[in-house]
Specification:
Tyrosyl-Transfer RNA Synthetase, mainly alpha, 3-stranded parallel β-sheet, 14 helices, about 55% helix, two-stranded parallel ribbon, binds tryptophan
Length: about 325
Amino acid sequence: METVVSGIRPTGNLHLGNYFGAVKNFVSMQQSHRCFFFIADYHSLTTHPTPENLHGNVKQVLVEYLAAGLDPEKATLYIQSDVPETAELYLLLNMNAYVGELQRVNSFKDKVRKQPDNVNAGLLTYPTLMAADVILHQASKVPVGKDQEQNLEMMRTFARRFNNMYQREYFTIPTAFNFGQDLVKVPGLDGSGKMGKSEGAANAVYLMEEPASIRKKVMRAVTDAGPTEPNQEKPEVIQNLFSLMSIVSKPETVQFFDEQYNQCQIRYGDMKKQLAEDIILFTDPIRQRIESISADQAYLSKVARMGAEKARESASKTLKEVREIIGFRSF
Ligand code: TRP
């Protein structure tokens, strides 16, 4: 069985874009792979959160991923800082990571631009920490988006470098997990091609969002003046609304509004009403699970403990071998 590792940055609430773009794939992957999903709270420190924010955000993502269907019995779901082997491997990898190559990483250069007052060493060595996360479990696959390609290349470099240095095929060289046609791009409500919180809160529908708020947002979604000729091509904003509908609604529903559009009889208000109800049908059970899991401290603590235990079992085996290979040997 292939080993998969992916890190989740604890930033903000999950929206439909996160769900259909990533979480749903994690949920199906846990059936067929040896999966490690962890909350990257060490990485979070690069932006200096307060202790309260850090803890609150970690809890929120844990709760939302559980509510969305990650199964702690199937996947190993853990919090990065619960596995100190991560930090040890990170330290060891840093000895073979060169400042020059780290400075050339695009996401580092972005951060230097965005937070010039906080260019800390953690930001510079973000790719070594990521490499440690993955090779710690000898993972062969990393499901990440396009924006992480360079980080993935760095992981491969560090793993290969270690193998070359000690003349052993020790670390598995990870590759990107490609979802191919399973990769769903969820359009936003503002008519843009992408749902995301950086595009503004009104653009995204959150899994934890109340029905009333969803209805309000969807009714405000951007449309146009309507078609003037039968069967005319849909402008991008309208196409995006249809795409969103095809993700959450039944095919017959989409077909109905498509025909209405083609006959120039579409009423966007009706379409949006339907879209809102179909979104709610999907999100509301998740929202309710978010609420009940969030209140269940005993369950959360059990999940975290179980995850840490399973992850440390895998990690400590690697560290024991790595120490031996490097020459940290007992007398
Ligand atoms: N950097 C990733 C992100 O921004 C999160 C992450 C941290 C990660 N460690 C990882 C992803 C290891 C995959 C594997 O989304």
